[in-house]
## 1
Amino acid sequence: MRNRFYAPALLLAISLSALTSTTFADEWKSGIKWEEPKVVVPGENGSAPSDAIVLFDGKDLSAWNQGENWIIEDGYAISNKSGIESKQKFGDIQLHLEWASPAEVKGTGQGRGNSGVYFMGRYEVQILDSYKNATYFDGQAASIYKQTPPLVNATRGPGKWQTYDIIFNAPKFDDAGKLAQPGFITVLHNGVVVQNQFQMLGGTFWDQPPHYQKHAAKESISLQFHGNPVRFRNIWVRELKPVVGVLPKEEAKTDAVVNKP
């Protein structure tokens, strides 16, 4: 009687052991030798992570050209007189910024809380008071200006702080000036995905169709002054660089670099 009950258990144990041995023996490995990812300490409540470049911390706009034209009070900057552009130039980046349209509603459409954040002076993510404010859809808040509306309208009411978290992948050009790779942009507006790796059609022009023109691999970030006192705070950038891996020589005729830009 005893063997009748223990034999199945023994067979099960042997089967599991064989299965486990086979699983480990058949484990696939890429063989790629990767760089070790560096350690980054995340920020809290929207504050900058440890590897970020802070462009505005609420105190001054010394990181910006024309920054002296804007008004700084209570930890934020108010757009005034002119646009501003970062002194440092960037390629592929993660950008965080917070903005607020005026609490007192004046104007309609494009005349209400209008500004914009430009990448490389050419590619604009629109800033606008789009809370119950009719305008053309590819010109409302979080649109890629005159190229695509946002997936949804996540705008808070007038005077309330809004966040943009933007992943910008710069276009690439060959030596002859021809487009080799288009630019891509992802936007989270108040934590909501509103642009999902949108492939840009070129520059976001007001008076002409979008098109690409060769430019440097790194250019400034710009914040627009459009006649409205839009407020900004907590602006920081992280430069994005791919992790590089190398295949061992025995698996390739020459060293193959993986993820190299």
## 2
Amino acid sequence: MQPVVTVAEMRAIDEAARAHVPTETLVARAGAAAAYATLARTGGPYAKRVLVIAGKGHNGDDGRVAAWHLARRGALVRTLPPPALSGDRTPEMEKLLAEADIVLDAAFGTGFRGTYHAPGTARRGSAPFVVAVDIPSGVDGDTGLASGSPMQADLTVTFGALKPGLLFADGKALSGEIVARSIGLDCSAAHAWLVEDADLGDLPARPLSAHKWSAALWVIGGSPGMTGAVGLAARGALRAGAGMVRVSVPGASGKELQVPFAPEAVVMAVPAKGWAELVTTGAERFKAAVVGPGLGREEGTLAEIRTIVRGLRIPLVLDADALVALASSGDVRGLLAGRPAPTVLTPHDGELSRLLGHPPGTDRLAVVGELAASLGVVVVAKGPTTVVSGPDRRTYCVTSGSPALATPGTGDVLAGVIGAVLARSGELRGAPLVTTDMGEVARLAALAAHAHGAAAALGPSVGLLSGDLPELVSKLLSGYIAPR
């Protein structure tokens, strides 16, 4: 995992480093890192025309050092200050932009406040290769929101650690390829981390002693005649390595109990009313449960869900309609308080707003961390960058998702995958996870979310269906989790 630090955290890290390392040394390292990363992506520099737009601060200093390195290797380098904040350009800058092969954007860094209109880079023929130094100028380092019209980068070279602004909102689209380079800063105490593919190897493998009940998961969802969502969750769980997967659809009987997508799941009929008590008293053999996909929003159903939340003593993944039950309870914190086992909430933005009581705002890391801490749960806030946080506010960023997942049912699959991962972790311990394991639950949920997004990338770029995802998850995880 890579550390992700806020602007304030990076400022503190810089100040701590300067007690031992001169500022000039850090600038020299950053500029060299930017230059060498540029060379690695653009080939030999000899006779290439490089325009460096360097501001007055340390970000500009980084750019000037990079310019020196590129010039030493034969590049034809010109360094200019950024245009006025209005975006006005001098004839000289117009000419250099039109001729440039490479543009280094070192106008402003992560602490910039104001509105910046970068010079345009459109010209005849191929456009120059644009490298942003630390962050595209004009992008907020914490939220990713662009102020004005920043330059679109092909490559962003950031230093020490990733910044939230590179992972969210406009910054995610404007940064291009992102590489983080060490310049001797200690970022190990970061509260947020980016999940990477290699981290999937940390997911638990099933032990040699495994049997179907040792990683059992109960999935409760759907309604008579509407079992697609709960079927997708069950299949996601099965393909993510759960053992016994039991599916219950309140009020369904006979042919209505047939669950699409997951014929291997074991179906158990439960009544339309009073099913919560049956589940809470019959879950002693299960390591986790998923509640919510397709359950419906009738008040009686929402009341049953609240009974489950209060009474179930195993890890619980609450998705979709279960989140409605929480938000409409009038006392979300009181409802969740005292649960003896971990709770994972999986809201999209609309559900997150209902849980918060207001729109989530622009600082995703802070908002999700505060909600998780206040409720004592793990929150998996789904989005272009999914944010996962636990009660200790240690936070994980998941960027493996793509627009291909913007189709009905993919969230149901994710809920099943998270449930399976929690059940398998309980299998290794020989007992369900408990509330003292909340840090581990957050990490596992983040890994599950990353696997879900990365699996989608293995499918078709156009027309990916939620029903495709479970098999893709199985294929992906099989490449990282070695059999015991």
